[in-house]
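User: Some background: our group keeps a shared notebook of sequences we're curious about, and every so often someone picks one and asks for a predicted structure to add to the entry. Today it's my turn. The entry only has the sequence so far, pasted here. Could you supply the structure so I can complete it?
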Amino acid sequence: MTINADPQELAKFGELAHRWWDTESEFKPLHQINPLRLAWIDGLCPLAGLRALDVGCGGGILADSMARKGAQVLGIDLSTKPLKVAQLHAMEAGTEGVDYREVAVEALAAEQPASFDVVTCMEMLEHVPDPASVVQACATLVKPGGWVFMSTLNRNLKSFMLAIVGAEYVLKMLPAGTHEYARFIKPSELAQYCRDAGLDLHSSKGLTFNPLTQHYALGTDTDVNYLIALRKPA
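Assistant: Of course. Here's the predicted structure to add to the notebook entry:
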């Protein structure tokens, strides 16, 4: 089976791995948006006592915070160095209830179908060759009646100007080359992947950034970053 991953993308995040938990590093935006994502997830689906999977967990920012909400969390990724950073952080911070594995989501879906109450896949779909395959695997992994949460970047002129030109080159919030415009995914395309995988759309949110206040907010503007909540029919 070919692995649904881009070696260049894995290497890119691997090289930055040691900076993952530095809140003033390239990963500052992830640290800033994580409380918003976590509150949205936990508000729709209270995490305490649930089994959760974070797909493309990187250095473990979301996985760690879900465990702190009382979930039993497995974070998976195919980039070795960020996973080691995630494991080390969990040990140093004393986070209980979180585990990490280097495994493809498709392989885990074959191994543990319908095993998780909650599956999250944040800021990852735009980095893989076949996002529909990831969506299908997430649908396989979640239990009937369970929740799937995803976030990615819309594909339009505004998202190109703000997420690439603005964030990477003008404001230098992210390293140049973090995103590839052609891989951005329109909400209609992601909705089709989800329907094909048998998931029902529950709700969506847009994530916006105000460069003057340096604050992120969740709202209705899905032009650039957007999040979707899905349910697997019971």
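Suggested note for the entry: The two ends are 30 Å apart (CA to CA). The mean pLDDT is 94.
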